[in-house]
Each structure stands twice: as structure tokens, then as C-alpha cells.
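Researcher: Here's a chain I'd like modeled. Treat it as a single chain, no partners, no ligands.
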Amino acid sequence: MNMNSDPGVIEMDSTWRTTENSCSDEPLSGTEHQIQAPELDPMLVWVPSGRRLISGLLGLNVVLLGAALLAGQAFNPDGLRHQEPLVFMLLLMGASLIWMLWYLLWARKQPDICPHKDHHAGGITVVLVLLLFAAFSLMLYICKTGYLISMKECKPAVKVLAPFFEAPFLTLQTYLLWAHSKDCIHRHKIITRSGLMLILSADLLLWLNTVTEETIHEEIEFEKENMLTFSNIKSFEVNISESLGISNETLCQCSASAACLAFRKGIEIIYPFNMEYYLMAGCMIYVMWKNVGRKMTASQHHITEKLTVRIIFQGGIIYGIVFGVLVLIAGATIFILYQIWVSQPQLRLTAFLIFYGYHIVVMPIMSLCCLAGMLVHRLERRADEAGHNPTRSLDVVLLVGAALGQLALSYFSLVAALAVGTQRPLGGLDLSYSLLSLMELILQNIFIIEGLHRHPSLLAKKKSKQKKSIFKSKKKVSAPVQEEKRTDLSLLERNASAAARKPDQKNSGTKRAIREICAFLILSNIMLWIIPAFGVHPQFENGLGKEFFGFSAWFVLVNLGQPLCVFYRMHSVAALMEILISA
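Model: Modeled as a single isolated chain. C-alpha cells:
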């Protein structure tokens, strides 16, 4: 029956036929009524129309409130006398712990709570890196506990208690992501989304707090090195206490105890791993939040992680690993020499020369590898993966978003080098380094994004369909329904065995090239991650940016951009590992 034939009926039924009023002027068929019927859930009438609206607004308000408190602590520590930001984060971690215990101990045992799995989420490389960062973060909490107990006379009680809350929160979250990051939860959706958003908000605020504390430590070290405000050791300790918001002036001296010095040194070394953990954990929690209520089809199951060990050890990857190891050895040597020489006035220029020289050699090679990889992608002509995938979308957003840190530093450094002048050696080197960083960053992003969106087993499916059509034409017999519904794992294994019996030289050559390129880029990005993660910041130490932009502006820019640069390199390693596996 045509709905437009009687407008009066539609007006009378508007109170209960809300979905029919929103339809177009064309008549609705029976199939369309069947498609729309499941969306009428009487149990969720009170929920706003957006499925993620409640949890999204909850997370937005929590993050903004926490960010305001942390900003107040950073810019006016005397105004918040009762450690309100830390108390707020402890309450947030407590609520997150309650939800995780509820889900792990009760909710996940309910029938049909997780009928689908997202096999793109929580890859083996990402989980292994997360476990590594979690182990270092637990070591950091041990060092923090020892340091704060040694300094308990002058530290607020809430700071002393903070590691005892952070350690269980990190441990339980790590287990949740290790065991359940692939879950597509279909029950208790509102509570699940809200709980995941609380965890994500806690991760973001803990990362922001870590970045803020690291910024304060770098500012103190810079002022100490240049003798800006300190006249003697005693006044230096007093200013450190004031900068960190500590009221006692004479008790906060860690030099009186060897154990305290050891714990503080451990905190300085392990700090970067904790920063990266919260970013990576937040990204995985975001994917779980997006997957709540998501339905997966059989064509979306790509179980390629099981082939990792065989690819690495039996895939014939030689040149990429050899040259990548050379990059690692050279980078580790230059990293050690830089750390030793940059603090010595007579060798300071030499430290900058070897740092810039290393990057000026490595980055063009990485750019050429990315160009070669894009050419191989064109030769393979593999189709792009169809359908919406929150994991892949998040990978692209993270790559582009994290790259903004390096892009901003490169462009600002380029402007400073041109303005100050390239006649000095550091000016020319910084200009070359900035240009090469921009080129390498853009090319690597293009190569990774193209590789992530290629379908890993599309060619195998086409070949199998062609074989089936040939057999059908000969025998005129229809295949059973179960034979048509095979998983991608069986297709991959059958294709791998067929390729082993009759190797295709063209396909094997392109796969070998992609794997060699990915292996070299992985090791190179690991070295480019280690160098800034452990305190090498030439953009801040060479003085060009500070001379042109001023100390305050350049200091804020560097300390906001450097954590993003570190995260970009780490995320690039995970993405390149996925491309290597699915080549």
C-alpha cells in the first residue's frame, strides 16, 4: 500500500510510527520494513539518537575538566594547593578499575556478549610492544615508589599514594587489551561504552600529566645548563622545589641518599616508555569503543599474525635486516657520543655535527626505500580493502596526527634557520635536516597508508573462484553451502601451499621487495624512535629556534612536538610490521 495515498492516516499514526514518517515519498517494500524493524528497540527509547553520544559526551567533559586542572597545575602551581589534578585522576582510575573488574569477572561470562571478533584490532606486534611498555612502566612505578618514600617528608600524601593506584590500573588494563582487544561487545552497550570512555580519558590525562612533568624537568635542566636563574646549589634545589609545587625548601634534596639518587635516575631513564604506553593503550581502547555493537562478516577475518614467525625466519629477508642492523649500530654509537660530548663546551659542536650527519645520510635512504615500495605497490595492482574498518581508519588518523609534531618542528626550524642565517654550520645543518625530515615523513606516510589498505588475500580468492567456475562447467554440480563459506585462514593456507608447489616469480619478487623494504624501515624507525625518546633534542639545544622565536615559545613548541615525534616512530614500526606480514 502506498503511504502517500492517505495523509490523514499518517498524521494520526505519527505518535507511534516515527520511522515511517522519516522515510521518502516512495512506497516501502516488505524487505525495507524488515530492515528497519530491528532498529526499534523499546528498551532504548530514552537513549539519544547517536549510539555513541552519551559516552562521547562523558569522555569529552572528563578530558576537558582534567586538562583544565593539569593546565592550572602547570601554569599556576600555587593556586592548586591540595593536588586537585592528581586527586581527580586517582578517582578516574578508581572508576575505571571498577568497570574493568565488572567486565572481566562478570560481563564477559554472559552468553552472546561477544559474538564477533575484529581480527584487525590487537595485532601480535602491537600487543607485544604494549606488553614491553607495560613492563617498563611497572619498573617506573617501583622507582617512583622508592623515590617518593625517600622524600615523603616533603611530598604530599596523595603523590606518595599515586603509584599504588597507577600500577593496578596499568596491570588490569594491559590484561584487558591483551585478552579482549578484539571483542565486539553486543550486550550492555551503554555501560560498556561509558566504561571504555572512562579508561580512554584516564589514559589521555595520564599521558598529558606525564608530558607536563617531563616538560618541567627539561626546563629545569635547560636553566641549570645556561645558568639563567641559579647562583649556587642550594638555591637550585629551592627553585626545583618551587617549580614542582613543593612548599618545603630544604627537605627536598635527593643527594643525601644514594638509594634516592638511583631511583631518580631510573625515573629519568624509563619515563619515555610510560608516555608511549598511555598513547598506545588509549588507541587500543578507542578501537574497542568503536567496535561495541559491530558485526563482522567472514570476509573481514584476516588471520595473518600466525604467519609472522615463518615470514621473518623463512621468508628470505636478508638485505633489509643487514642494512637495518648497520643503521642501528651506527645510531647507537652516535647516540652515546652525543650524550657525552654535548655537555662538554669544546666538543659540543662536534656532537651536533655527528647527529645531523647521521640523519642526513639515513633519511634520504629511507625516502628512496619508500619510493621503491610505492612503485612495487603499483606493480602488484592489488585491490584496496573495501568496507569500514575502525582500526585502519584509526591507523591513518594516528599516522597523520602524530606526524604533525615532526612537521611543525621541521617547518619552524626551517624558518628559524633561514632567518638566523645559514652561514654558521649549525644553520645549514638544521636547514638540511628539516627539509629531509619533511621529505621522509611525507613519503613514508604515503607508503604505509597504501600498504595498510591493500587486501591481503584478494588474489587468492580470485584464483579460487576461477578454479571453482572451471570445475562447475565440467561437472555441472553445485558445491555445498559449507564449501562456499570458508574462512580467510583456510584460503591463506591453501594459497601458501599452492605457492610453495608452484612459485610465481613475479609475486615472489614483489613480496620479497616489500619485506626487505619494510624490514629496513622498521629498524631505521626504531633507531629514530630511541634517539629522541631518551633525551636527545638538538632542536632545543642548538639555540637557533630559541634565538629566533624566544625561549618560552620555542620551549612549548619543542616539548609538545617531541612526544608526537616519538609516538609517530613507534606507531610507524607497528604499521610497517603489519605490511611486512601481509605482503
